[in-house]
Amino acid sequence: MSDRPACYPAPPTPLLSGIGPDRMPLLDVLTSPVPFGRFDSPVDDRHVLCLHLGDPVPVSYRMGNHERHGVRLHGQFCVVPAGASTRWTLFRPARSLLLRLTPSLLRDTADAMGLGSQHAGLASSIHIRDPQVERIGWMMQAEDHDAYPGGRLFADSLASALAARLLALQSRKAASPTGRALPAWRLRHVLEYIEANLDQDLTLAELAGVAGFSLSHFKPLFRQAVGMPAHRFVLERRVERARTRLLEGTGSLTDIALEAGFAHPSHMARCMRRVLGVSPSQVARSSR
Prior knowledge:
Layout: E1 27-34, E2 37-40, E3 47-53, E4 57-63, E5 66-72, E6 77-80, E7 87-90, E8 94-101, H1 103-112, E9 125-128, H2 131-145, H3 151-175, H4 184-196, H5 204-211, H6 215-226, H7 230-248, H8 253-259, H9 265-276, H10 280-287
Antiparallel strand pairs: 1-8, 2-7, 3-6, 3-8, 4-5, 4-7, 6-9
Helix pairs in contact: 1-3, 2-3, 4-5, 5-6, 7-8, 7-9, 7-10
């Protein structure tokens, strides 16, 4: 059984101190490149979550007869259930944070939540955005980067929290009908327009016009496609551009703020604290 595509580096060993080959961790993590073009994901005996890192990337996704198209955004994740394989087409190289969760933990968590055995698995899905899952992913990434200072106990607690959150999201999704989303090619036009005009005072009516929809139709279609309202998406892209420029260490705070579409450095600082929880000066110091 293929563990990962050839482009994926081998995971660090041991993943956690004290875990031998006879016992897999409840949750492991790997920051990995994702290949450009078409490829089949490897079959894994664990549930795999792929959190997208970096700039938006257009993708198509196929599992059996089900196919979806869209744009992967930073922090969004897809789910590949244990024992399943999916076909991906990426239109440019990307990076993902891979989280692999043991099915036995999901079953135990479903029992503890009173969901029953019929809800103990995960359904394949794509382009999901959830702040709690993101935080768990970033914490696992930090643990792996620092050689697991919290030990097995902390990693296992994150695994349990992730299992509970995924089951809760899946139960909520099953209880509510799925709405229509913005078609992939129209979404791509809107995202490209936003990236090219982040330094301008963008309006919803302007973005709706680029998409070719009325304002009232555009708002729910965009939210369904990317998992957040258009104004929130634009804010996060502005913060990400400012963060990138600060890490590069070039330009004044005023120049960076204006380039990212903020009115002034104080406006940029407020938004950065709100989205990232850190100030521009803290981001700049981290680059040094």
